[in-house]
Amino acid sequence: NRRLVLAERPKGEPTASTLRLETAEIPAPKKGQMLLRTEFLSLDPYMRGRMSDAPSYAAPVEIGGVMVGGTVAQVVQSERDGFAKGDWVVSFNGWQDYALSDGTGVMPLGRNPQNPSWALGVLGMPGFTAWAGLTKIGQPKAGETLVVAAATGPVGATVGQIGKILGCHVVGVAGGPEKCAYAVETLGFDACIDHKADDFAQQLVAATPKGIDVYFENVGGKVFDAVIGQLNPGARVPVCGLISQYNATSLPAGPDRMNWLMGQLLRKRITMRGFIIFDDFAHLYPDFAKDMQGWIAAGKMHYREEIIEGLEQAPEAFIGLLRGENFGKRVIYVGPL
Ligand code: NDP
Predict the structure, then answer these.
(1) Residues 6+ apart with CB under 8 A from 81
(2) Lesser CB count within 10 Å: N end or C end of the chain?
């Protein structure tokens, strides 16, 4: 059983010495448990938070502990009612080949799922995050302008496509011309701005002539800086993620714009609301699954994956995800072993 454990807490960007590959015995399931073999491991930005012991909504991974992570797995041996050898499931095996489970939080995928890895993306946690954050907090109306960054990732791409289905004018923000072209040509966004361009802020203003009604916040930093002044009275800002800050070790240098921001919120009666997907919206999962399955069946949802083979590639692939090197949902293909 190969597994990646947290060797040290990173300062700034994770490095090659943050995680350590170990080998251990394959555990045997006791009564009420099952042994799961990891097929696909999801790489997600939140994992950077689990490497840190700064206060957060979830406990950090212990030093020496197996790195946590969502997985698609197959049941190898079952001593638990309701699960049989060969069943596919969504589980939380973490960054390892095998894991024991008592079934808590495990979601069955049947015997022969069509695209099992999609359960880690558009049909799973990131898709659900997009759906809930946008429709429940963003509450977009037809004709309104919606802006979303990390626009080609699993959350952003889904946010923008749902926005189009709901009749919004959708402007994406992404890193580089290739990702921007994909957002417009394949995902159907009305425009997409490259945040690496020197005149990014001016381009964003030009692309949102009627202001911004919903800003789905995935990145923070200079993208949010450029958005604030464009927000319309009554705008809604679901605060989903701040990936530009996840490796930061200190606050950025001034000027201190906090009071200017507070003035904008007050005068324009803007609603900003943070959310943690399963803590806030778990009860709505069936509604999401129904909508998303319908959109996929109707050909209304494009989904791009980047599958990287080999558990040992996961640390490098994760460091790259935080740098924006991924183009689509990054998944590690771990099995079959
Ligand atoms: P993505 O696959 O979109 O990955 C990250 C992307 O962020 C990169 O590809 C890059 O895209 C962009 N990015 C990285 N650094 C910067 C930067 N400095 N400035 C601007 N963009 C940057 O990730 P997900 O779709 O999985 O997640 C998107 C966000 O949603 C994350 O912030 C994540 O933490 C959050 N999230 C929150 C949840 C919640 O419950 N609140 C649940 C799930 C996700 P590009 O090259 O286009 O800039």
Answers:
(1) none
(2) C
Domain count, the chain: 2
Summarised one tens digit per residue, pLDDT across range 15-33 is: 999 999 999 999 999 999 9
Residue 174's CB is within 10 A of a number of other CB atoms, namely 28
Q: Are residues 144 and 231 in the same domain?
A: yes
- Residue 287 included in any domain: no
Alpha carbons 131 and 145: distance in angstroms, whole number:
17
297, part of any domain = no
Distance (angstroms) between ligand 1 centre and the Cα of 248 equals 15
What would the pLDDT profile of 285-296 be if each residue is shown by its tens digit?
999 999 999 999
State whether 106 and 132 are in the same domain. Answer: no
Nearest CA to ligand 1 atom 30: 241
Whether the full predicted model's pTM is greater than 0.90, yes or no, is: yes
**CB 277 less than 6 A from any atom of ligand 1:** yes
Cβ atoms within 10 Å, residue 84: 12
pLDDT digits (tens, 9 = 90+) for 250-271: 998 889 999 999 999 999 999 9
> Both 131 and 269 in a single domain?
yes
To which H or E segment does residue 334 belong? none
The interface predicted TM-score of the complex, written ipTM, equals 0.99
Q: Which atom of ligand 1 is nearest to the CA of 153?
A: 3
Ligand 1 close to Cβ of residue 153 (< 6 A) = yes
